[in-house]
Design a protein that fits this description.
The protein is mainly beta and about 300 residues long. The protein has one domain: TolB, C-terminal domain (Neuraminidase). Helices cover about 10% and strands about 40% of the residues. The protein is built from two helices and 22 strands. The protein has a five-stranded antiparallel β-sheet with strand order 1-19-18-17-16, with helices on one face. Strands 11, 12, 13, 14 and 15 form a five-stranded antiparallel β-sheet that branches. A hairpin with a 6-residue loop joins strand 21 and strand 22. About 5% of the residues have low confidence.
Length: about 300
């Protein structure tokens, strides 16, 4: 009688079945742990004014923005400024048609991750924490940016930046390591403030989001939901802070005390790699996503009004 090891074809089949069994078990466990809902409002007094089940518009962008990595509101309705993570160019984009309205070079090619503005001043964030500052001119196709250095470096991988009119600061979020990592803040992702008056970066986070708290909200158990922020924006109506993470495809809303008010899980089929988030002056929300081999997109969500007592 032939022994098992004398039958190499049979051994291969057994190994294949074991691997398949492990894979099926993993898929089953993963599916069983998926949350039953994708929208979680934590604060009973908070109304989340966007319906991700009904996106108002999703437009594909020019191929130059296949790797769109940052977003901020333009000067006019239905317009946003965007950058991509390889070239030192700023794009003004129509959010209805997806067309590029204007294009301006501000620096040489680097790894750019975020963009925001204060009036006509534009601030572009590099992955090492450097901020490139310049004044936007309607007819110019080439401007000179001034570089503002911070204490961040490549190990922090700064990806999100926005202007906060409440404090006249730039809010910056690192995707990876915190500025001063400790065992106590391993599950926290900090939001740092750069004071535009003093030109100084606060070395300690002013706000934060806890991946453990998000996990408790999403899974209902003491389990982390991994968050690596890729975008940040301030709601012009409530002044709450919206933090976007491409890892986990999640949007988290926090207040000025860093209390979570809402968690929204984004559909991977639409938001392949969401990295940009911005608000229009009227509160409409824009989210951009890289194409990952396809065209980059910008989605528009019209702000809803909270229901009245009569409703």
């Amino acid at each position: 009688m032939n022994k098992l090891w004398e039958k190499p074809n049979l051994i291969s089949i057994v190994i294949l079945l074991v691997v398949l069994g492990i894979g099926i078990t993993y898929v089953a466990v993963t599916v069983s742990q998926r949350p039953e809902t994708e929208s979680f409002t934590v604060d009973d007094d908070y109304f989340f004014p966007y319906n991700f089940d009904r996106l108002d518009r999703v437009v594909k962008l020019h191929s130059d923005l296949n790797e769109i990595s940052g977003l901020c509101a333009g000067f006019n309705p239905d317009e946003v400024f965007a950058i991509q993570d390889e070239e030192g160019e700023l794009f003004l984009v129509n959010t209805v048609t997806g067309e590029t309205i204007h294009q301006v070079r501000f620096d040489k090619n680097r790894d750019y991750e975020g963009v925001t503005r204060r009036g006509r001043e534009l601030f572009v964030l590099e992955t090492d924490g450097d901020i490139h500052r310049f004044t936007y001119q309607d007819s110019a196709t080439d401007v000179t940016a001034t570089k503002m250095e911070t204490d961040f470096s490549y190990r922090n991988d700064t990806e999100g930046i926005c202007y906060d009119s409440v404090t006249n600061t730039l809010l910056i979020v690192p995707k990876e390591q915190e500025l001063n990592p400790t065992a106590d803040n391993e599950s926290r992702r900090g939001v740092y403030t750069y004071d535009l008056t003093t030109g100084q970066l606060n070395p300690q986070p002013t706000y934060y989001v806890s991946s453990l708290e998000v996990g408790q909200i999403v899974f209902g158990s003491n389990r982390e939901y991994i968050i690596k922020p890729s975008g940040i924006a301030v709601d012009p109506i409530t002044r709450d802070i919206f933090i976007l993470s491409s890892v986990g495809n999640v949007l988290v809303v926090i207040d000025r005390d860093s209390q979570i008010k809402h968690v929204e899980l984004l559909e991977k089929s639409t938001f392949t790699q969401p990295e940009g988030i911005a608000f229009a002056a009227n509160g409409d929300l824009y989210i951009s996503s890289e194409g990952r081999g396809g065209r980059g997109i910008v989605a528009t969500l019209t702000r809803m009004q909270p229901p009245t007592n009569e409703q």
